[in-house]
Design goal:
Layout: H1 13-32, E1 38-39, H2 40-47, H3 51-63, E2 67-69, E3 75-78, H4 80-110, E4 113-120, E5 123-130, E6 146-148, H5 153-161, H6 164-174, H7 187-200, E7 203-206, E8 213-221, E9 227-236, H8 244-258, H9 265-269
Antiparallel strand pairs: 1-3, 2-3, 4-5, 4-9, 5-6, 7-8, 8-9
Helix pairs in contact: 1-2, 1-3, 4-8, 5-7
Length: 271
């Protein structure tokens, strides 16, 4: 009987990947410690990395725009991609902070789950919610959960802001895949729906993402007037009430005002 083969542990690819990430972080921290571009030699000394290793990782980060090359040959500085990502995080954090208290108040008025979501590519991502386990039957979305733009009330708010050409591109790219018999899966229907969203100032999801669930959403804007989030109320279809629309719009206005948006109608709605 031949001896059983010895099974070697899997190649340490994960360990190698973690090691690369750790080295990237060391280099980014070293760059962050300087206001001016830093030479490869200085970075190598600061991180205890061999110059060839540091050079290879820096080149990869340059491609990803996490690092930029300095004006002087062989120098590096933090890249614009970090600023872009940082602004995204800052916007989301500030929106969540501004929204939580008004969201809880809206939940107390409606007795239903109130969601805050942001756009990420072709989807919305739920970033905050207000609900109570003692409020009976509710629709609760998981924080971090995702859904297609065209199937959600908040997603329609973002699509309604897009140029019609971008909406057509979105439709081609996603195929407008549906989840229920009520899902909007045709471009012309979607365009009509988005026109109504722009005219009404809020959006609806009529069991388009999930049968038995309806949602209404209003937009949250920052100090520049940019749509940064959707505020929505989700409820079992038979419990959804149009009487909540005014409160929803007012709450979205309050959150927008907290973010510095407007002094006219939006600010008045926030009072």
């Amino acid at each position: 009987m031949s001896p059983r083969p010895i099974i070697e542990p899997a190649a340490p690819r994960d360990k190698t990947a973690i090691q690369v990430i750790e080295r990237m972080m060391k280099l980014l921290d070293a760059l962050a410690a300087h206001s001016d571009p830093v030479s490869l030699k200085e970075l190598s000394l600061a991180t205890s990395l061999h110059p060839s290793t540091a050079h290879r990782i820096l080149n990869d980060m340059v491609v990803g725009r996490f690092v930029d090359r300095g004006d002087q040959a062989g120098t590096y500085r933090l890249g614009m991609r970090l600023l872009e990502l940082g602004n995204l995080v800052k916007a989301r954090l500030s929106v969540r902070e501004a929204a939580l208290e008004p969201m809880r108040e809206l939940h107390r008025k409606t007795g239903q789950t109130v969601n805050l979501s942001v756009r990420q590519g072709d989807e919305i991502v739920y970033v905050e919610r207000a609900y109570s386990e003692r409020s009976g039957m509710q629709v609760v979305r998981a924080i971090g959960g995702r859904a297609p733009l065209h199937l959600t009330s908040s997603g329609k708010l973002f699509l309604a802001q897009d140029d019609p050409r971008l909406v057509r591109t979105y439709a081609t790219r996603t195929g407008l895949a549906g989840h229920t018999r009520n899902s909007i899966t045709e471009l012309q229907r979607l365009e009509r729906e988005l026109s109504m969203v722009r005219a009404r100032g809020f959006a609806r999801d009529n069991e388009e993402l999930e049968l038995g669930v309806r949602c209404i959403a209003a937009g949250v804007r920052d100090d520049s007037g940019r749509l940064v989030a959707g505020l929505s109320v989700s409820a079992p279809s038979e419990r959804m009430q149009d009487d909540w629309i005014e409160d929803l719009l007012s709450t979205a206005g309050r959150i927008s005002a907290r973010l510095g948006h407007g002094t006219g109608e939006t600010a008045n709605a926030a009072e």
